């Protein structure tokens, strides 16, 4: 898949001297859902703002669909839809006018049928004549999405789309995002909810302190980076871990009935076979064995912690 | 040129204008009527004529200018400041529009609103005083030029302002005094010589004088000088806006 958005060594130093982006390079593939994961202040919003044109990069270059975002800003921006983090909407305007305005701003001729389809998809059609200020927070978020989609973008940026949104609406939002991907729209969303990245992303980029720490296929990331825990339950409690097992760095549960062994799935040898053999050699009788895989959250905390 | 975008901004702004009809139309009409009652009828009845024109008629061009200048500045500054204030500026900045197109949309809408208000006040004036316009085409031309140049100024103020106080600051502290002292309600020749000289540094004098000439065929300063003043003012505003667009001043970080 060719890259639809390509960032090359982008830096951003704000006037106060704050370095928000420290040489970010990133290729976003056409048709994928990429989740940019990072804590608050990691540079997620700055990166999006630079790509979309709200913030000037200090150095580096970015192209969208082959159009440089500075030299050919019209070409680049007409491909992009942006749903900002804040609920920034003209409060006194009608929903439908607000959406039509966005379409016009992007130079697209009026198309009532298309606007109606978008509003219906987002369950906003009933509210089309309502003033924006009369809407709930979740509805306003939908209006922002409708505005971003009004000009038929090929790339959609969602900056923290589900921040402060209830579970129900979050699920709806994910459905919408998946539907858009089926239409061939490339989606980049920022989030600090791991659950979100895990639920809908194809690839996950982890950003912290203005640097992209990694960008990986989600499943691959979890498989490669994932540590697994082997939990061994014993028939009889033991007071301490036998000396012969010290090499495995086992953790004894408080009741003395369970042993936990952490291993890395990336490793050539997980050491499980040897461990089980040695357990038997020590005369320990096993009651049950289970494994659990670390979530993206654990991976994330590990990565961000390592970088810090 | 993204003409569709310019149209979208223009229509959006004009919708706001018509949505707030009371504030947009009725308030300037009401305040102008009050001026006519107070200055024209009450005080004017004690003043015979100014430069051969009845005082009631004499203040018409000044009143229109006063409203048009205030309205242009207020409309344009609010128009671009409000998106900054509520955050919707993100959409303008991320759309495939150039700053020139954004400016044409906002300034065009602000100037159009001011022009409408100016024409309504002119209509109201006919109710109160006998009025003949010597040079109607020149009158409209002056009106349009004033609307545009002060809308440009308003646009600059709107971009510069960081809060509502700053948004009001220049109109309140600079524009209103300049307009009042620029001969809206009196002839410059009525002033003592020293003040006549000082007044000549007030750019608004040239605009009002030119506009008054279009009505009555008499001007306090030459019409060429008036045209030069308005052209210079517009050029300065355009230069400042050009610089803002080049640097992204207070728009982009």
Automatic annotation (TrEMBL), chain A:
The Swiss-Prot or TrEMBL record annotates one GO molecular function as: ATP hydrolysis activity
PANTHER family hit by this protein:
ABC TRANSPORTER ATP-BINDING PROTEIN
Q: What is this protein called?
A: ABC-2 type transport system ATP-binding protein
Gene3D superfamilies membership:
P-loop containing nucleotide triphosphate hydrolases
Q: Which residues form the ABC transporter domain?
A: 5-234
- Which keywords belong to this entry? ATP-binding, Nucleotide-binding, Transport
From TrEMBL, chain B:
Instruction: List each copy of the ABC transmembrane type-2 domain by range.
Output: 19-248
Localization of this protein? Cell inner membrane; Membrane
Supply the PROSITE patterns for this chain.
ABC_TM2
Q: Which residues cross the membrane?
A: 21-43, 55-82, 114-133, 140-161, 167-186, 198-215, 221-245
By its UniProt entry, which Pfam families does this protein fall under?
ABC2_membrane
Which superkingdom does the taxonomy of this entry point to? Bacteria
| An MF annotation (GO) of this entry | ABC-type transporter activity
GO CC field: ATP-binding cassette (ABC) transporter complex
Q: Which UniProt keywords apply?
A: Cell membrane, Membrane, Transmembrane, Transmembrane helix, Transport
Q: How does it sit in the membrane?
A: Multi-pass membrane protein
Q: Which family is this sequence assigned to?
A: Belongs to the ABC-2 integral membrane protein family.
Q: This protein is called what?
A: Transport permease protein
